[in-house]
Amino acid sequence: MKPAFIFGTRPEIIKLVPVIRAFEKRGLKPLLIHTGQHYDYEMSKVFLEELELRGINYHLEVGSGTQAYQTGIAMIKIEEVLMKEDPDVTLVQGDTNTVLAGALASVKLKIPVAHVEAGLRSFDRTMPEEINRILADHASEVLFAPTEEARKNLEREGIIEGVYVVGNTIVDAVFQNSEIAERKSKILEKFGLKPKEYAVLTAHRAENTDSAENLKKLVEIIESLPIPVVYPVHPRTEKRLKDLGLWERLKAKDHVILTKPLGYLDFLKLQKNAKIVLTDSGGIQEESIILSVPCLTLRYNTERPETIKAGGNVLVGLEKERVIHYVERLLNDEEFYSRMANAENPFGDGRSGERMVDILLSLYEKGELRVKSSRFI
Ligand code: UD1
Ligand code: UDP
């Protein structure tokens, strides 16, 4: 079987490496296609190096642009590669423009798509990611849902065939890397931090960065935090903070450590030893519960409701009073803290990648890995 992986951003690399490794364990060498949606060293190459993902077959250098431009150029370039290579299946992960472009280009060439992390829904169609998730799921033949909730979302949209609940490969990634991170990373020493005496914050969602009003609210929250905070800034947010004159304001604060985005080993170590995580990232909401660190999500909805139900995550939005209330509570109420920290990981046992490869190989052997004319027969 000839599998092809299509990816282009930081979280896709992190979450697909475990699946690529599982194929390699079975003696298969997948085709690797990097769209170049993320291209800075800190957003892409550092992960290829740390996770030892060598031998990318195609670098498509799509780069940044508007939604349609980025998706369109990616589709054109992916189609060219797929026509030349004719893989048996393409694998995409998550909800980025790379995923939508890969899924559409592939299914239209009648190459079946396997969607890793299928069925997530924020139920907010104003997010570009929600559109990407829905369309990618409907273009896919094999849907790897991380949880039963994700499976139910697919069922609600009429997708029943080809759905497998396999857990989330973020657990594989965390299990495979957190010990290495603990040993190798010197990030706490670099920033002069002690375990459990600081918070980590990230923010890059369009709804938080594109609106000046919301970005100002975020800055006011950071300024008011009653605990040292490390903030690795996504390039999208760095540009906006600088444009709005907010970067210097944050930099001037003694309790705020602003830094470039970090490599995976440094970020995992920082997260694992943090007292609290504040974020609008999907992957970081997942990692926090796996690493037993309470997470406050700077959004009003989440496509990871399992983390909320389990008790490890609270949607705090961007209202300063609410965010600071929860931070204070976590710092002062031991019972509340320990309840959040001890929430059970809902994303599986760290063998998701292996399971996906077993399923794909078995479908392939039975001749069932193909684009079917209807889902309903
Ligand atoms: C994308 C995904 C988002 C995911 C995130 C992971 C879409 C619609 N969004 O958002 O779901 O959570 O990746 O981090 O696909 N930039 C750089 N250097 C880079 C990459 C980006 O400077 O290497 C800047 C550019 O100004 C670019 C902006 O960041 O315009 C946004 O990048 P883009 O990849 O379009 O979206 P993300 O916000 O990264
Ligand atoms: N991450 C990282 N360095 C950073 C910030 C995040 O390695 O400075 C990792 C993080 O551990 C997680 C992933 O990047 O695995 C999340 O990516 P991001 O927040 O960009 O995207 P999302 O998950 O929201 O799509």
UniProtKB/TrEMBL annotation:
The keyword Isomerase applies. InterPro entries: UDP_GlcNAc_Epimerase_2_dom, WecB-like. Residues 25-360 form the UDP-N-acetylglucosamine 2-epimerase domain. Keywords: Isomerase. The keyword Isomerase applies. GO terms for molecular function: UDP-N-acetylglucosamine 2-epimerase activity. Pfam families: Epimerase_2 (PF02350). Its EC number is 5.1.3.14. It comes from the Archaea. This is UDP-N-acetylglucosamine 2-epimerase. It comes from Thermococcus sibiricus (strain DSM 12597 / MM 739).
